[in-house]
Amino acid sequence: MSQRNSEKITKIIQNHKLRRFLLYSIILIMILPLLYLLIWSFARRWPWPYLLPEEFSLDSWRYFFNPSSGALAALSLSFFISLAVTFLALCISIPAGKALGLYNFKGKKIINSLVLAPIIIPPLAVTMGIHINFIRLGLAGRVIGVILVHLIPTIPYSIKILTDVFAVLGDKIEEQARVLGANSWQRFFYITLPLIKSGILSAGTMVFIVSFSQYFLTFLMGGGRVVTFPMILFPLIETGNRPLAAVYSWVFILAALAFTIIIERIFKNKELSKEYLQL
Amino acid sequence: MKKIELVNISKKFDNDLILDKINLNVEAGELVALLGPSGCGKTTTLKLIAGLLGPDQGDILFGEKSVLNTKVEKRSSVLVFQDYLLFPHMTVRDNIAFGLKMRGVSKAKREAKAESLLEMVDLPGYSHYYPHEISGGQKQRVSLARALAIDPEVLLLDEPLSNLDYNLREDMQNLILELHNKNDMTTIFVTHDHEEAMLLSDKIAIMNKGKVEQYGSGEEIYKKPVNKFVADFFGTANYIKGRIEKGSFYFNSTKIPLKNQFNELNKNEINTAMIRPENIEINSKVKNGINLKAEIIERKFIGGKLNYRFKLKNGHELVASTFIEDHNILNEECNLSVKFENIWFMAL
Amino acid sequence: MDDKYEILKPYILLLPALIVLIVLFLGGLVSAIAQSLGYFPLIGLEEFTLNYFVEVLTDAQFLAALRFSIYISLLSSLLSVILGVFLAYQLLKLADDNSFISAIYKLPIIVPYLAATLMVFLIFSQSGILSRILYNLNIIDNMNLFPKMVFDNNGIGIILTYFWKQLPFVTLVVLTVLKNINTSWEEVASNLGANGWQIFWNIYFPISLPSISSAFVIIFAFSFGAYEVPYLLGPTFPRALPVLAFQRYNSLDLSQRPYAMVIAVTLAAISFVLMLIYKKLIKISKL
């Protein structure tokens, strides 16, 4: 009996070890390419079949930081556009999420489908269709046009996230504030907003990342005149300038990563966030 | 302190009639229970009084004035929800001070008030705790304090004791009574528990299917229910079918004179006598009452009481309960007696 | 009193979203459809016709592109979903909440597709690191011996990029659902004699199936309609549908525009049908 038990335990441990091994190797596959990319960013000469660069250099990084390359300007424009998109998307999605999460009304099903449709139906097709109208309205080739068109692939995510948040929150806590004498603005600022904060953060991060990595929509609507970061990275990959493309890619990844981490650190009150929705 | 009047209130959700022409008068300073099974419309009534819902028909008066056009946040009523609904991102003190903050009361004043209310609900020193750090009973106290902070004229409580453990209920009952008396309020609370209703309230409105079936003191409703639903909701009852002949009630050959033991019914409609189990006396003859021979078929000891089931000669079963154990009556034929005054008549 | 407002309230709250969705999204879609039907007043085309559809849908180049796009999206999505579900289940079973692992596996989600494309290129091209490693192991002695995995007709590089980006996404979605499944069901099942594998197939898999399928639909639709990855890593023939569409769109010859729109509308239509099938499946599985 005891022997069988100990056999069983060994088996569990082996299973566990196997599981760990599998997990770590899969995760390694996810991460190693990033490190490899980093090495490329420091290469000057790295011909086939060398496993490491023949010559290391900071040239590509230096070029990146040189104002004449326009990289930093493109990066700032990217940040500006994505932040504007995030702000607009949240302004649109918070009320929409409240309506879809808390109320029952005629046409809710259709609106729900309409909200999710841009996730499924390629924004590429939609944007090609609307391009001509943007040109006519003078929005094409301008930052405002790019911002507007970025709303198409982003608001489905933010509305969906906030709908779920409102559905969990319910409307009773607002009613409670109401019977205690809070008017609608006070209810929004003192009760709803703090309680959906973590939902706003996830929705905002999602919108930012999607907008920030957007290439095609910017390219089409911006017509080459709105130079965001992907606009200068794309030709580098296309022409095969590997070290420089590696630098730009790493900056791109770091910028996205930094944004998510900073947002989380600044706004998330760890102590409370877990308890928020458990009431 | 304000008198509250509901006049012919009706409310529909989609096509379900939730409230059907309700009328209710609550005198200023009274503590009234809305009692009924779930789905009877009692919580809807509470929300209508608070203003969270608007009636389809009828009027609601505070004092002598209609409040239908007064917004929820401007009414002098506060509703305390069943699940407390403390604001999870605020400390206990900020929760209590919330209503005052909304009214623009200065920070120092509202915090002082919060502290004094915490004393009143027996939670001194808890002001800096967050809701998730305190127990259910403590949350209930805080939510009461939060409601009282704005000195409401009308306090509305939704199932105030239902989420509490049994041993906390008595404390909370006492606290609610104490707070009601101290704070000059008209209080209405909702419950599905008739004992809770009787313990706390001056008056009970028992509701069923969107109507108020009966409105009166607990004792009155218990002893003089208007119908079987009300009688059953307040506990076990025996029903004996019979008929009216020459101004008296007969079942088999037993005659019971009719006095005032019925509600505003036409005498000839009466066809049933109701007897509460504890009004049946075992093996003691009474003069002004009925005496019946019966056989014991079941006897159960339940704590301080004994519950019996009897069978009459005609096969009819009766239940009775006593506090005294009497060994003589075990498995024997015995005599059951009920005083006339303890018999209540109704039309089923 | 404010009952009227109460009825209108959800619509008022939805108004900004509806404006964006109707004007930009539906407006764009309608405009694309109109142009695909030959309505393009800019160059004097004002009559509706199905000719462009007939022409494009019978064009060999289009059909090859359609086949290629479906093949790429289907294969990459299937791979991501199968491995993603597996990975999610393993992460769930990794009893101790390993915050390092659960933070690191999500990293590719925020990596832009362009960067992912570059990495696949640096690793899998004939001059990439894999080919260099094989050379140093004396397995190949010439980079041309390394199988063509980028710009190849099988779209391997494209599939790998989508797989790398979408695997963590599927894992995240599925893991979130798995975590919310009551573990006492697992206890009940194992008490009734189910082993680990049976528990997965009979408890976890059916419960998380709706999210698994919605993750599949989302990534399939994305890969199906995306431009940059197949443009950068794909062969010149066949091209993916979005690449073909934009090539026609970008042509200086404006009379090509309706052809581009036919391709775009076909893309949208196929995605739409996919969404309908998905909704039907969800309904059936709920019965």
UniProtKB/TrEMBL annotation, chain A:
Transmembrane residue ranges: 21-43, 63-90, 110-132, 144-167, 188-209, 215-237, 244-263
Annotated Gene Ontology cellular component terms: plasma membrane
Protein name listed in UniProt: ABC transporter permease subunit
Short name of any one Pfam family annotated for the protein: BPD_transp_1
Membrane topology: Multi-pass membrane protein
Keywords: Cell inner membrane, Cell membrane, Membrane, Transmembrane, Transmembrane helix, Transport
Family per record: Belongs to the binding-protein-dependent transport system permease family.
Keyword Transport in record: yes
Keyword Transmembrane among record annotations: yes
Location in or out of the cell: Cell inner membrane; Cell membrane
Source species, domain of life: Bacteria
SUPFAM superfamilies: MetI-like
Domain ABC transmembrane type-1: 75-263
A biological-process GO annotation: transmembrane transport
Automatic annotation (TrEMBL), chain B:
GO CC, one annotated term: ATP-binding cassette (ABC) transporter complex
An example Gene Ontology molecular-function term: ABC-type quaternary ammonium compound transporting activity
Enzyme kind, highest EC tier: translocase
Domain ABC transporter: 4-234
InterPro entries the UniProt entry points to: AAA+_ATPase (IPR003593), ABC_SmlMolc_Importer (IPR050093), ABC_transporter-like_ATP-bd (IPR003439), ABC_transporter-like_CS (IPR017871), ABC_transpr_FbpC (IPR015853), Mo/tungstate-bd_C_term_dom (IPR008995), P-loop_NTPase (IPR027417), Transp-assoc_OB_typ2 (IPR013611)
Coiled-coil boundaries: none
E.C. no: 7.6.2.9
Keywords: ATP-binding, Cell membrane, Ion transport, Iron, Iron transport, Membrane, Nucleotide-binding, Transport
PANTHER family: SPERMIDINE/PUTRESCINE IMPORT ATP-BINDING PROTEIN POTA, SPERMIDINE_PUTRESCINE IMPORT ATP-BINDING PROTEIN POTA
Name listed for the protein in its UniProt record: ABC-type quaternary amine transporter
UniProtKB/TrEMBL annotation, chain C:
Keyword DNA damage (UniProt): no
Predominant location: membrane
Name of a matching Pfam family: BPD_transp_1
Sequence ranges assigned to domain ABC transmembrane type-1 in this UniProt record: 66-278
Family: Belongs to the binding-protein-dependent transport system permease family.
GO term, biological process aspect, one: transmembrane transport
Stored CDD domains: TM_PBP2 (cd06261)
Source organism (scientific name): Halanaerobium polyolivorans
Transmembrane regions listed in the UniProt entry: 12-34, 68-89, 110-135, 155-178, 199-227, 259-278
Lineage, broadest ranks: Bacteria, Bacillati, Bacillota, Clostridia, Halanaerobiales
InterPro entries: MetI-like, MetI-like_sf, Sugar_ABC_transporter
PROSITE patterns: ABC_TM1
UniProt keyword list: Membrane, Transmembrane, Transmembrane helix, Transport
SUPFAM superfamilies: MetI-like (SSF161098)
Membrane-topology annotation of the record: Multi-pass membrane protein
Top-level taxonomic group: Bacteria
Protein name: Sugar ABC transporter permease
Subcellular localization: Cell membrane; Membrane
GO cellular component: plasma membrane
